[in-house]
Every structure is written in C-alpha cells, then in structure tokens.
Amino acid sequence: MTLSVTKTAPVSQLNVPTVKHLPSGLTVIAEQVPVDAVNLSVWMKVGSAVESDAINGMAHFLEHMMFKGTAHLGNGEFEHRVEQRGALTNAATSQEYTHYHITSAPRDFADLAPLQLDVVCNPIIPNEAFERERSVILEEIRRANDHPGRRAFFKAMQTAFESLPYRRPVLGRTEVIESLTSQQMRDFHRFWYQPSAMTAVAVGNLPTDELIDIVIDGCDHAALFNQNKPTIHPSFESQSHAPEPSFSTVIRQDYCDPSLSQARLMLMWRVPGMNCLDQTYPLDILASVLTGGRTSRLIRELREEKGLVSGVSVSNMTYVHQGIFYIVVHLSDDHVDEVERIIIHHIANLHDQPVADHELQRIQTQVANRYVFGNETPDNRAGLYGYYQTLTGHLGPAISYPSHIRNLTAQDLQKTAQRYLDPKAYSAVVIHPTE
C-alpha cells in the first residue's frame, strides 16, 4: 500500500499533526500530545446538506442506527465494551458532516478504536431496531419544535436561505421521517459512507506511528475498502449549492409565539462560507467587536448602559457554501424598533470609521487566545483537525487561524463591513410573545 505522508509545518510547537492520505481516499491524521488519554474522531463528509427534501433527516437518523449492531457487534455491545473500559463515546450530525468519537485510556485504544471503525463502516440497520429508533427520532423532533430557541432559529434559517439546504432542519421533518425505510438507509450509507468522504483523527499520548497503525489496521479489519459505490439513487440528489445573492433590501418577517416571555429580534446578512475562507476571518473579528465581552459595542450600549435588552449575541455562522452574519437579541417587545435602529447604526459605523487600534488588538488577542485555549485536550484537538480537513480538504486553516486573526488590520475590517454588511439590506425576523 502506497501512502502519501505530510508532516504539517507548525505555526507553533503546540501543533505537529501528521497526515496520511491512503490510496482508497481515506485520510488519517495523528498527533501525540502529553495528556493521558487518546481520542479517535471519525469524520464523514455527510450531513443534511447532501439530502434531498424527500429524505431530509436521513443523515441524523443514520447516526442513531450506527450503534444498533454490526456483523461482529450485537445491538448495544459497542457501548457496553466502551463503558467497561471507562471510555467515552458520542456522535453528532450537522448540515455538512457526521462525527463519531471515542476517548479512552492509551492502554485501551488499540482494542476500542477498531470497534468504533466497525460501527461506522458496517452497520447492519436491522428492521426492528429501525422502527424502534424511528419513534426516538420523532420524539427528538417534537422536543426541538417545543423549544422556543430552536423554533426561533428555524424561522431565521428559513428566511436567511431561500434554496440552500441549510434552511432545512438537520433532524428532518416528521412526515419525512415517518416515510423513510430501512432499505433507503442502507442504500444511503453504502453510497455516502466511502473512504474518500472519511477522515480519521487520532490524538493522544501514544507515538504517532502507533496511532496511525492502529487506525489503518482498524479500517482493514472493518473491511472499509471492500465497499463498492452503488449507482446514485434519485432521492440522494441534493439541492443546488450555489451561494445565494446578498439581500438587496430589508426583508422583514414577523411571527407570534405565545410561549416566549420576551421578543426575539434576529438580523442576518449573507456572507462568504468556508469555500472563501480568507473572507471569513474579518467577519469573525467584527462579530467580536459587536458582542465580544461586556465592553463590546452592542453589549455595552444595549445592555449595560441603556438596559434595553436581556441578551444580545453576534455569530459569524460559516457553512461551506455560504455563511450568515447573525445577530440575535432577547428584549421587550416595546423596544424592538429602537434596538434595531441602534444595531444598524453600529453596522453603519463599521463602514464609516475604522476600528481603533486598541480595540482591534484587544479583540484579536481575545479571539486568538480563545481558539488556542479551546483546542488543548485530545478530543478538542482531534475535533479541530477533523473539522477543517473534512470541510476544507486540508489542515492549514486549523493551525494558522490565530495568525490570520492577528494579521488583520482595521482597514481589512472596514472593507469587509462595507462589502458584506449593508445597513440598508438585510433580513429581519421578529418573534413577538403575544399577538
């Protein structure tokens, strides 16, 4: 077997991962860190964004079914073996990836890692277990629909995106989940769960070569490379992923949700996604300029000085094909108009006045340090590497993010605000607590 091996050029001595690209298309990343644990994170470039409307929710449903047994592991046996060793396992599905991970003591890693890989590669998806789990998924959807915050977010995403699949819920819709079949799920797994869509990351206190060998041996044991990709099924054809144009005017949507105790105001701008990664860094900084701590602009004026809101946050939500610069405010219904005017005034100010040097330096240090501090444990580090490798195809951005942030200038921020954050063109969603 011929391997392509890359030793990443570290920006700091904290990051020295080794990357191996196998002929099958599988990517293996490994790094030894001096923490007495090892994490294996298996990332699949498969999420709700690859689904058609007809099978929306399939990727998340499949994540649940992965733990219902393989040819070598009975239903629940994987979790039982993990718990016996005092290890931890979990999984998550998003719009653009599904992530499975296990953390164990170094001495147990060689025994448990192949089990995790077998679970991901070879689920048998029994009919009876499928029907039982369907009710679990439907209950999860009901709980999500009963949660005011999630309902508000769903409304915002449906307004932010007209055609991109990010507008749909990852969990899917009740009527779709009720119609799915176990054979559809087996076909979905066989089509999408291919080595070329898989990144396996092992980080912890074992030699790098040993980590890589354990992962490769586990993949061989799981017969990952013996799968033949079937002809695409019509229900697997996802929607167009072309970015949607910026808003050309202010688009308003008003809703009523009597379960809320306060109103929600959400303002959104369409911005670049991870396929234009360099353009996302200034937007990350601008989000922190507005709500990065008690001295940030919106928190200081809206909450600390004027007491108009109980909470305000800004996020640069970056998906692969497009992002959303997203402001959400919790406030009294009587203050919605005034607060929106103040926020838009701050957005316009970002156009007119460069961020002061002392403010920029504070925010850059804050953003860069939080990034570094949040990626020190094996599971954090493995998640970081898997996320960027899966969504961008390489590790450079995972390691160089702090330096990109520190190299931005006030002029970079101003140009970005002028280009993407139009104070006269955005989407506004207001959810009122009463009619």
Q: Could you characterize the architecture of this molecule?
A:
By secondary structure, the protein is of the alpha+beta class. The chain has 2 domains: 233 residues, Cytochrome Bc1 Complex, Chain A, domain 1; 182 residues, Cytochrome Bc1 Complex, Chain A, domain 1 (2-Layer Sandwich). Helices cover 42% and strands 19% of the residues. It is built from 15 helices and 12 strands. The strands form 2 sheets. Strands 1-2-3-7-4-6-5 form a 7-stranded mixed sheet, with helices on both faces. Strands 8-12-9-11-10 form a 5-stranded mixed sheet, with helices on both faces. The longest helix has 20 residues. The radius of gyration is 23 Å and the shape is globular. About 1% of the residues have low confidence.
Briefly say what this structure is.
The chain has 435 residues and is an alpha+beta fold. The protein has helices at residues 58-65, 77-84, 109-121, 127-146, 148-160, 174-179, 182-192, 208-221, 281-291, 297-305, 336-352, 357-373, 378-392, 396-406, 410-420; strands at 4-7, 18-21, 27-32, 38-44, 88-93, 98-104, 198-204, 251-256, 263-271, 309-318, 323-331, 427-432. Residues 9-13 have low confidence and may be disordered.
